[in-house]
């Protein structure tokens, strides 16, 4: 059992509730953390041993399962993690260029993006269109019959990658559109309350100036973390919340 706090792009795992309450970031927590840049949180519908479980897939292709207390908390964690990832993950670097025919995944930087929310959304939308085009082109050129096993394997790996990235960026696009729409409604309501000409804090005017909203404040309710599945790699990541592992 762990208690989790999400801070920026790192999910910290605390050994007990006291560590969570004191917001301790250090010691063992530095080794029990999961970096969530370019990560994706989804409902673990294929996991049937426990209820209200979500899957966290990270940039290093590790997977983690977390159990929440109810369906509302489950959705809250998924939305919060995806919003933080969509808002702060820097654009991926171009894939390495070389003479090898083996498929190479682009590098995913762990640094924060320099784009504001509007620019970030636009970048995600462009990547969705680019990935759709790449996937369509990829499927038009399958390996010939009798092709070497390595060629077939590379083809399959690239298709899996493109499908996953398309799903991830579609999720990012959807969550950012939703949040920006909410900010717009909040800004309009606050402007009406404060009077014309006032620029309410946290409004889209701030976003246009390049300011990021306080994603860490969009925290899901605390949840205990149950160790459902041994992670494929040692954890490293962050948001302020209690969670069972």
Automatic annotation (TrEMBL):
Polar residues compositional bias, start-end: 227-239
Keyword Coiled coil: yes
Membrane-spanning residues: none
Source organism per UniProt: Callosobruchus maculatus (Southern cowpea weevil)
Keyword terms, alphabetized: Cell membrane, Coiled coil, Guanine-nucleotide releasing factor, Membrane
Coiled coil regions in record: 114-141
Residues covered by region (Disordered): 204-245
Location relative to the cell: Cell membrane
Gene Ontology terms for molecular function: guanyl-nucleotide exchange factor activity
GO cellular component: plasma membrane
Pfam families assigned: PH_9 (PF15410)
InterPro entries to which the protein is assigned, alphabetical: PH-like_dom_sf, PH_9, PH_domain
Chief site of localization: membrane
Keyword Cell cycle: no
Name of the protein: PH domain-containing protein
Segments forming domain PH: 1-86
């Amino acid at each position: 059992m762990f208690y989790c706090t999400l801070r920026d792009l790192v999910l910290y795992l605390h050994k007990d509730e006291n560590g969570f309450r004191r917001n301790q970031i250090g010691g063992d927590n530095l080794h029990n953390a999961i970096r969530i840049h370019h990560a994706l949180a989804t409902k673990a519908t294929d996991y049937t041993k426990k209820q209200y479980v979500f899957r966290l897939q990270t940039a290093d292709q590790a997977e983690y399962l977390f159990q929440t207390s109810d369906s509302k908390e489950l959705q809250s964690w998924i939305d919060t993690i995806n919003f933080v990832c969509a808002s702060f993950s820097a654009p991926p670097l171009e894939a390495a260029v070389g003479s090898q025919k083996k498929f190479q995944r682009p590098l995913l930087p762990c640094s924060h993006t320099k784009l504001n929310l509007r620019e970030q959304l636009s970048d995600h939308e462009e990547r969705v269109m680019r990935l759709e085009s790449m996937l369509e082109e990829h499927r038009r050129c399958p390996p010939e019959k009798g092709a070497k096993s390595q060629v077939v394997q590379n083809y399959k790996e690239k298709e899996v990658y493109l499908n996953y990235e398309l799903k991830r960026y579609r999720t990012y696009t959807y969550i950012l559109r939703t949040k920006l729409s909410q900010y717009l409604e909040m800004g309009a309501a606050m402007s009406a309350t404060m009077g014309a000409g006032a620029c309410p804090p946290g409004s889209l005017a701030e976003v246009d100036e390049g300011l990021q909203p306080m994603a860490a404040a969009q925290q899901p309710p605390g949840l205990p973390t149950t160790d459902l599945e041994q992670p494929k790699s040692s954890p490293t990541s962050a948001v302020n919340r209690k969670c069972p592992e």
